[in-house]
Amino acid sequence: MGMLSEGLTQVLIPAAALVGIAFALLQWYLVSKVKVSGDSSGDYSDKLIEEEEEGTDNLEVSIKCAEIQNAISVGATSFLLTQYKYLIVFMGVFAAIIFVFLGSVKGFSTKSEPCTYSKGNLCKPALANAAFTTLAFLLGATTSVLSGFLGMKIATYANARTTLEARKGVGKAFITAFRSGAVMGFLLAANGLLVLYISIILFKTYYGDDWEGLYESITGYGLGGSSMALFGRVGGGIYTKAADVGADLVGKVERNIPEDDPRNPAVIADNVGDNVGDIAGMGSDLFGSYAEASCAALFVASISSIGINHDYTAMSYPLIISSVGIVVCLITTLLATDLSEIRDVSEIEPSLKRQLVVSTILMTVGIAVVSFLALPSEFTLFNFGTEKAVKNWHLFFCVTIGLWAGLVIGYITEYYTSNAYSPSAGCSRFLQDSLAAMYGIAVAALGMLSTIATGLAIDAYGPISDNAGGIAEMAGMSHKIRERTDALDAAGNTTAAIGKGFAIGSAALVSLALFGAFVSRAGINSVDVLTPKVFIGLIVGAMLPYWFSAMTMKSVGSAALKMVEEVRRQFNTIPGLMEGTVKPDYANCVKISTDASLREMIPPGALVMLTPLITGTLFGVETLAGVLAGSLVSGVQVAISASNTGGAWDNAKKYIEAGASEHAKSFGSKGFRCTQSCRHR
Q1: pLDDT digits (tens, 9 = 90+) for 533-588
Q2: How confident is the model over 280-318, as pLDDT tens digits?
Q3: Which residue of 3, 374, 440, 588 sits 20 to 30 Å from the alpha carbon of 158, by its own alpha carbon?
Q4: What residues contact residue 246 under an 8 Å CB cut-off, 6+ apart?
Q5: H helices within 574-681, ranges in order?
Q6: Burial, 384: exposed, middle or buried (Cβ in 10 Å; 0-12, 13-18, 19+)?
Q7: Distances (CA, A) of 357 to 318, 446, 451
Q8: 197: which residues sit within 8 A by CB, 6+ positions away?
Q9: Cβ contacts of 22 within 8 Å, gap of 6 or more
């Protein structure tokens, strides 16, 4: 038994979650004090404003920003609400499938069964496990959807406010954007922890001492979160790229107008895409990883001596880690918004990176305290049919390795084209498995995500700043203001890379932890590649990420083509559009991108969700183990390759547009129209 009492544990976890929610609401309130409607309470004539907009009335600019913000918010809300109609149907159908599959294992038995690991005890019937797992799935799915939706709302709420604060200086704009990102980060981390904790408490009233059944049913929470993340990422990603390609190909390439020019019919859809893809999609994605890591760690612990001996505090170790993470991230956020000030654009990126370093250092101390207070000095894990003795300091190193691996990934992905973090992740996995088997890998993934509030705040900051720059362009604000928003956006490009690195690294660890939980529960002692069933599964599994990627790229191409055709149609048929005397039909472009992305997200999503069910039903658990192993290894490689390749292309474009060198200028910097001669270079 650890030194932390059960009663104190039951207070600390929900208290930390409630503190996180309260802090998020405080940040929201502070952001809301920036007015965008141009009313008298905004008082944009005060002496804090460093400059007046040249040739532009302040009230007129504020009203324009409010109109643009409203259009982006309406478009993003419309997309997500339409997407959720599809997801509600999916949730209902898949919940029924879960119930049928799990209930049919014992013929929908209502009789108690002998426990698998707690010998001599009886566990709850299969029908009850099926019902509670289905309920946990619905709770996880709902929380994931809510996380994405709230993130989108705060992002669309803050984008114009960031633009207007840029008139007071880059520091004011930075604080507004970062606080807005913090709202999303803390709401996601706190809501995810609180819902999971309450679910465990409520489920425990039925399961009682059957912790094996309790935490097996709780795994449905992680499945619900990750399944919604899949559709959120795919649907939002297709929308984002379709709108981006349509706006750029016709607007920038064919018509030679600037990016975010209000004459471009797809410009609102492009800004909407930043919110539904990079905000709502990323929020759901990281929540899915967070929920899966927590559930995997809880399940593996439940079949160890911790679970068999009913050591509640040690069992709650993953939740306590997340609780400490919320407090650490709160301190780190205050460091960025209240204890330091951005005075120059050169200070933005170092400030963001400082958040990662400080939160990691503080979290290391927190992990050490929790590991020695909450865990017994030694306990036993069941590791593929064998028993492994684990000490509390083993767990400290596992979580810390995951935490610092996340920091390393965050820094290295800044360079995009480098895949140097692949070996780092591989070494960390080896150390974690050596110290504490699959439980070590699960808590390491949780360690990487323990500072998710700060990580997500930094990640959400990027699209908010990007939107702010677009609004400044569309509202006709001065060049100096646009320079400030561009500086915020440039730092946001780095943070986007950090977010992708965290997503890939945590997903790899979580997937391995879930694979370990699966083989443990399925009673598989080893995955032998020489077995024909397993080998076939490996080949099919390795193919799946490529198939999935090909389907999504084809979907983006199809949706983007429809957008290109619509933008061309408007330029060709609406008199005065190029002259700026009439407004384009923004709403129709938003509708086209929405309809196309939602229709195209179904086949890739179905491929991921149905493959394990069909494989396991028709070919058995050994083949399914091969499919999961193959897709895990292949998926990590595809993710690293695609992320680095896309980042390299994006950086090359920005390098040329900025005219960063004489060589770059020879290709034509931003705003330069390439002639026939330069096309042959």
Answers
A1: 889 999 999 999 999 999 998 988 888 899 999 999 999 999 988 888 888 998 89
A2: 888 888 888 888 888 888 888 887 788 778 888 889 999
A3: 588
A4: 266, 269, 270, 560, 563, 564, 566, 567, 589, 593
A5: 586-600, 602-619, 621-658, 662-666
A6: middle
A7: 22, 17, 11
A8: 13, 14, 17, 319
A9: none
* 652 band by pLDDT with thresholds 50, 70 and 90: low
If DSSP codes are grouped into helix, strand and coil, which group holds residue 518? helix
Query: Measured in whole angstroms, how far is the alpha carbon of residue 157 from the centre of its chain?
Result: 19
| The two structure tokens encoding residue 177 | 């954007």
First to last CA, the chain: 71
Question: Which residues pair with residue 386 across a beta bridge?
Answer: 383
**Cα atoms in the Cβ-side hemisphere of radius 13 Å centred on 646:** 13
User: Can you count the helices (H) and strands (E) in the chain?
Assistant: 20, 4
The tokens for 390 are 């684990």
pLDDT for the residue 424: 46
d(CA 369, CA 645): 41
- SS3 string, 157-194, reads HHHHHHHHHHHHCHHHHHHHHHHHHHHHHHHHHHHHHH
DSSP string, 520-586: HHHT-----TTSHHHHHHHHHHHHHHHHHHHHHHHHHHHHHHHHHHHHHHHHHHSTTTTTTSS---H
Burial of 7: CB neighbours in 10 Å, binned 0-12, 13-18, 19+: exposed
Tokens for 348? 């933005």
With beta carbons less than 8 A apart as the criterion, state whether 274 and 461 touch: no
AA identity, residue 215? Y
Place of tokens 């010998």: 119
- Tell whether the model's pLDDT for residue 430 goes beyond 60: no
Using an 8 Å Cβ cutoff, are 358 and 52 in contact?
no
> CA angle 177-182-188, nearest 5°?
135
Helix (H, G, I), strand (E, B) or coil at 383: strand
Spatial neighbors of 96 by CB under 8 A, at least 6 apart, are none
Q: Which helix (H) or strand (E) holds 381?
A: strand 378-383
Number of residues that this document lists for the chain: 681
DSSP 223-272: HHHHHHHHHHHHHHHHHHHHHHHHIIIIIIIIS---TT-TT-TTHHHHHH
Dihedral of alpha carbons 569, 570, 574, 577, sign: negative
